């Protein structure tokens, strides 16, 4: 039962991280430093908005105007991250019902095992749904950075949300795997 609780905790931490990267605008970070250090700006780009931080500490964010005007990669990343969050909610529900420490289906052990096992599998799916758009965005950012046509002042780098996304996806996969391994058929 303790191993099962570890799997549940890891998966829930992964779910919280996925929810965090969905809202934070730190997927792509671009620092612009002009000839004068006083005019430095940092640009953050996320799934839902982009922000500018000036050297004075002033932060200004703006949501994207049109969904259709966004690149296909960003549209797909939005959808996959939102689906990952929704699938994680379903997995949490299944795992709570199928956990050994709860009283759901107390008399029917086979049903309880099947529900708990399916909760672990759904956590695995949620982890993959998180890792795919994060890795896709990272690939796009890295190829854009090494693009010789891009100006050196506006080359983007990986933001904190990319790293948190990889960690969250890994925690969802590891938690789901631990949950799957704790059920005996």
Explain what you see.
This protein has 185 residues and is α+β, with helices and mostly antiparallel strands. The chain has a five-stranded antiparallel beta sheet. 58% of the residues lie in helices and 12% in strands. The chain starts with a helix and ends with a helix.
Major β-sheet, in short? Answer: 5 strands, antiparallel
Helix content class: 55-70%
**SSE string, helix = H, strand = E?**
HEEEEHHEH
- What number is the mean pLDDT? 88
N- to C-terminal distance: 16 Å
Overall shape:
elongated
Rg, Å, rounded: 20 Å
Side-by-side strand order of the widest sheet: 4-3-2-1-5
Give start-end ranges of low-pLDDT stretches: none
Q: Which band does the percent of strand residues land in? A: 5-15%
> Structural class, please?
alpha+beta
Number of strands: 5
What is the number of helices?
A: 4
Task: Give a short overview.
The protein is α+β, with helices and mostly antiparallel strands and 185 residues long. It has helices at residues 2-23, 72-98, 109-145, 160-181; strands at 28-32, 41-45, 49-54, 59-63, 157-158.
What structural keywords apply?
4 helices, 185 residues, single chain, alpha+beta, 5-stranded antiparallel sheet, elongated
List the helices and strands and how they pair.
Elements: H1 2-23, E1 28-32, E2 41-45, E3 49-54, E4 59-63, H2 72-98, H3 109-145, E5 157-158, H4 160-181
Antiparallel strand pairs: 1-2, 1-5, 2-3, 3-4
């Amino acid at each position: 039962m303790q191993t099962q609780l570890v799997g549940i905790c890891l998966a829930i931490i992964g779910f919280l991280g996925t929810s965090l990267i969905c809202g934070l605008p730190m997927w792509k970070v671009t620092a612009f430093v002009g000839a004068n250090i006083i005019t430095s700006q940092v640009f953050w780009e996320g799934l839902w908005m982009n922000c500018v931080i000036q050297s004075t500490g002033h932060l200004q964010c703006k949501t994207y105007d049109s969904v259709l005007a966004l690149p296909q990669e960003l549209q797909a990343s939005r959808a996959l991250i939102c689906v990952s969050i929704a699938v994680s909610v379903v997995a949490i529900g299944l795992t709570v019902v199928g956990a050994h420490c709860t009283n759901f289906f107390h008399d029917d052990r086979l049903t309880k095992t099947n529900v708990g096992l399916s909760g672990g599998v759904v956590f695995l799916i949620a982890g993959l749904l998180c890792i795919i758009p994060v890795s896709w965005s990272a690939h796009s950012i890295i190829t854009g950075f090494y693009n010789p046509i891009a100006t050196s002042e506006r080359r983007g780098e990986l933001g904190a949300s990319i790293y948190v996304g990889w960690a969250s996806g890994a925690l969802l996969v590891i938690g789901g795997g631990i949950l799957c391994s704790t059920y005996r058929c």
